[in-house]
Amino acid sequence: MKERMHELLALLSKAYIMRRKFFLKKSQSFGLYVGQPQLLTYVRDHPGCTQIEIAEALGVSSASIAFSTKRLQKAGYLMKQVNNLNMRCNKLYVTHEGMEVMDRFQSTYDDMNLALFEGFSAEDMKKLTELTERFIGNLEKLLSEEPPVE
Questions:
Q1: I want to staple 77 with a disulfide (CB 3.0 to 4.6 A). Which of 44, 83, 86, 98 is the partner?
Q2: CA within 13 Å, CB half, 79
Q3: What pLDDT, on the 0 to 100 scale, is given for residue 86?
């Protein structure tokens, strides 16, 4: 049983790493770097948001968001607009070019995800979902039992 658990955990890790590598490769083919598709999606869904709001929503540092937004501005995918009420607070918007690259990227991303589940039946998908939810539930339980790291 223990050996089988290790094999399964190794397979889950391998699947995650391979999917991430493929996702990164596809992102780069659109001129996007790690985390930028998620950042663009957030700004698209929350026009006029701030870098601080994005950092909180995505769970990353403000410095990381500042770096990415500068890159995205330079690429022509994002624009900043000064907030008239607070000159130090810029509002972010996705440009027309940013919307176009996001649409193309989303189509590629959707195709990739469909290909990942090629040959899976509805029953396979249901069972995989149930097992994954149980696995995540066990992880959440373990995390809630751990004392906070200081």
A1: 98
A2: 8
A3: 67
